[in-house]
Design a protein that fits this description.
151 residues, alpha+beta, two-stranded antiparallel ribbon, globular, HTH_HxlR, WH_DNA-bd_sf, WH-like_DNA-bd_sf, Helix-turn-helix transcriptional regulator, transcription regulation
Amino acid sequence: MRWNEIGDVDCSVARALSVVGDRWTLLVLRDAFLGVRRFEDFRANTGASRPLLTERLNTLVEHGVLRRVRYQERPERYEYRLTEKGVGLYPVIVSLLTWGDRWMAGDDGPPVRLRHETCGHTTTPQLACPDCGEPIDPRDVRPVLRAESTS
């Protein structure tokens, strides 16, 4: 299978990777969640070349993860804002952040902390079952294929 065909596979992970499955896109999303909106700021923060960043932003807009909003008429300039679909990627970014904090942070510790604005505490979000509230661990979950769930 070729990489450009991955979005056609009957697998949600493969389909998601067809949109967000490269390092530059994940860095763009990281910055979007940090409040970055303008092309030059994305470029400065990620280190991506202009053509590469343009391609990644266009893909995210095409798939409805970001939307372009004009903020200046002359010259015409746009910023990029997360859509509802884009905000839905927050757990992915936070999971990568949490993994990186645990396994890749180094001697100085994590470079970013998440503060829950409601209570003011620094937090490490975790996956939890929406029905019982228990934390989800991969050893406690079994994938059920579509064919199994309908029989």
